[in-house]
Amino acid sequence: MSRRWSPRGLVALLLAAALWVTCGLGAYLYLGSHRSTLTSQAQKPGQGRQANDAPISHLPGVLYLVQDGTLYQLQRGTFTPVLSSPGGPGAWTQPALSPNGHSLLVVRRDYAFSDLYTTDAAGHGLTQLTHNASKTVELNHWAFYPRLTADGGSIFFSYDAKDRFNDYNVVLTIYQMPVGGTFTQARKWTTPNGYTGGDLQPVPLASGGLVYTKYSFDNASGRILAQIWLTTRAGSVGRALTPAADDCSEPALAPDGQRLAMICTAAKQVTSIEVAPFDGTNLGPRQTLVTGQLASQPAWAPNGGGLVYLAPQGAAGHFQLWLQPIPLAPPPTAAPPSAPPASPPRGAQVAKPTPTPALTPMPPAPSPTPLPAPIRLTQDNDFDATSAIAWHA
Length: 393
What we know:
Helix content is 5%, strand content 36%. It has helices at 7-19, 26-33; strands spanning 62-67, 70-75, 78-83, 91-97, 103-110, 113-120, 127-128, 143-148, 154-159, 173-178, 187-188, 199-204, 210-218, 223-231, 239-240, 248-253, 259-264, 271-277, 287-293, 296-300, 306-313, 318-325, 375-376, 390-392. It has one domain: TolB, C-terminal domain (Neuraminidase, 6 Propeller), CATH 2.120.10. It has a 4-stranded antiparallel β-sheet, with no helix packed on it. A 4-stranded antiparallel β-sheet has the order 4-5-6-7, with no helix packed on it. Strand 1 and strand 2 (70-75) form a beta hairpin.
């Protein structure tokens, strides 16, 4: 399909290029700008020697992640290409698994547009779900960050419903589309802030609500910063779960639905991976798991006992796969029920109970046991730090 630029579109492109430095799709391209220019020196996943007992071989279940536009499956330490890079400007990115693990949602990013596709877990039966290309480039659209609801009936994703009279204000809005439906059936869920990048990375909740990343202009710092945001229904304003100053994004919900992981930068060049209890409405105190790295894309182990993520390593700055173990808390042990006291015989003298002395205050609980150090699982790859990792049992 041919592409042409209108004169008005060329002006819009120049304006968009300036804006993307700090906003718009810059939110998506930020980590990509930190990738090394030495990608050609990185090995393809699966190349090179690996010890049989390497930590990567002990990861449970199946993971999906991207390098150089190719989608790979990782199982028992072995990488297998699932969708090969389309070549040219095309690339596969941002895989998301169905609740049963039998199918995948994936984004095909192309020149000036992107679309959602579905396929089975082995990359067969590829089906296009959106059609965002246009003969006029500024009328193209973007679709990113697909996620299925827990019942598998709907897809949430970010889409740029841009104003045709204001082409350079490219902000992403979260939409919900029924599985098997078309975009004409999609429903708008959020209202993004203009000139910021918009609303990204939706995480559907079992309650029917949604957690996502919202970008806003922060007057205190004069910068565009991210917040983890919660909304309970389509069209609701919702509310922030994290302060703007913490600049938190990339929410990842634990399999038990009771913990939320996120990436926070505090508007600095390095990041931290943090986890907080989550009751579906509020976040509890946040715990820092990893700090001092340019970490991205946290994904929970199927049993909730750890997180994998991407972070650069070595002089080349290639993004490797890392594991942060999180020891599972032992289940509470219930005390055996005590038998009720026997009734005294009729007429028997019953002694008065001895007064119970006041309880001595308990000492404060000891500090949590330090977490194990992160484990680097790959050595010479260069995974796409803007692409989510999907992990299923």
